[in-house]
Amino acid sequence: MFHIDALVKVLTSGGSVLLPVDTAGRVLEILLILEQYWTQRHLVYPIYFLTNVSTSTVDYVKSFLEWMNDSISKSFEHTRDNAFLLKYVTLIINKDELERLGDAPKVVLASMASLEVGFSHDIFVEMANEAKNLVLFTEKGQFGTLARMLQVDPPPKAVKVTMSKRIPLVGDELKAYEEEQERIKKDEALKASLSKKEEMKASLGSNLKASDPMVTDASTSRKPSNAGSYLVGNVDILIDGFVPPSTSVAPMFPFFENTSEWDDFGEVINPDDYMMKPDEMDNISMLGAGDGMESKLDEGSARLLLDSKPSKVISNEMTVQVKCSLAYMDFEGRSDGRSVKSVIAHVAPLKLVLIHGSAEATEHLKMHCSKNSDLHVYAPQIEETIDVTSDLCAYKVQLSEKLMSNVLSKKLGEHEIAWVDAEVGKADEKLTLLPPSSTPASHKSVLVGDLKLADFKQFLANKGLQVEFAGGALRCGEYITLRKIGDSNQKGSTGSQQIVIEGPLCEDYYNIRELLYSHFYLL
């Protein structure tokens, strides 16, 4: 919240804010935070989400609300309010709308996060010279990138950047390009015609030698034949009628094999086969002629993907004076201290190795984990070697044939499972599992398997049942609800999973329970 207040302060002073982000992922949370803050404060400053796929990304996320947290899913369940129907955020796929605003205060979330390429690179060059502007980083930049250079303390006062721009070919360059393309097409056509001629000669070579005499095996005939045959030493194939050319493996009808050229990247293709015809492009333009965001997306896609005009990229290096403010907000979402401590407590490891953290954070977590006397914590330095091997009480046992003859196993994926009641014995100095000497006590039925509620939802929907996710549970019909509950009391393991069926004892209850049992193996 502190960074958002600083962001608003920049806007009120007449500056603009740039947030270099990726095209998806954590940026969706940032959009929701800004949307909520703007709604509460009734702010009027425009927010733009600028990537090549901004519209399609948000449209895709709108249909996956069941994978969001409870507040978003419950809000949609009760009020049908989709959190990603953004009122204050404008989705754009090019810089035209930004250029129309000029120097007006605005917030721009642009790709890419590294500032090396993309919209964020160009916008940074435009905003860096103004002290009233702010560049707010949401993640640590990769080594060697412009973003990482700007995140050092103190930041540089000037940086060198490479500006690239694609421009169409004109004049002599366009003429030379067209002549080169024409020459390539002629060479390809000539090469194709020569290849076809060679194939024709190879396949029709037998017709050219139709008058050749018949060849017989020397061992079967010792006299010249009156039928015009002659003898060749050690030939054991009788070819009656024609002799195949040396390039053929056997006599056959003419066959033209479609041979393709290959390079280091695979089969060589002809780009003209994948180019849209002018009438098809006109149809796309007609589809994108309507109003609203969908038409904007179609026009932008057509311009980005279907522009086949000859062009070239020109680049020039320039020095940018960094006068704008720079700030870093840790929004990578990898893990926080409380979450790491909770995970470690749940896993309950015997040994723990801490790496890749700052010295302060590593020492703090090491002191916290050292309170558990059963846990050995290691924090090795760079290039330090540690030994974490341990002795385990593991025994190798042998299953006797008499025991296995009475075991009924069931197929589970690539494995077979079975419930075994046995006694441990010793045979030939080896531990062996033997059949029990007395009748074993009956055991409770065990359901073996791993059920994913998302897959089970699709299974029930195929059966004609109305199902939906609500509050982390699967609601089936009007009365039945399925919940997946973990046993958090079991430390040192992930705990057993329980499927709880809630609802009145009715026909739907028993039908859904039977369908649920069909996804498990009963032992």
From TrEMBL:
Entry's Gene Ontology molecular function annotations: RNA binding
Keywords in alphabetical order: mRNA processing, Nucleus, RNA-binding
UniProt superkingdom: Eukaryota
Annotated localization: Nucleus
Positions of the UniProt region annotated as Disordered: 202-225
Domain Beta-Casp as annotated: residue spans: 27-150
UniProt keyword Chaperone present: no
Main location: nucleus
One Gene Ontology term, aspect cellular component: mRNA cleavage and polyadenylation specificity factor complex
Family annotation (InterPro entries): Beta_Casp, CPSF2, Cpsf2_C, RMMBL
GO BP of this protein: mRNA 3'-end processing by stem-loop binding and cleavage
Protein family: Belongs to the metallo-beta-lactamase superfamily. RNA-metabolizing metallo-beta-lactamase-like family. CPSF2/YSH1 subfamily.
Protein name stated in the entry: Cleavage and polyadenylation specificity factor subunit 2
Species: Zizania palustris
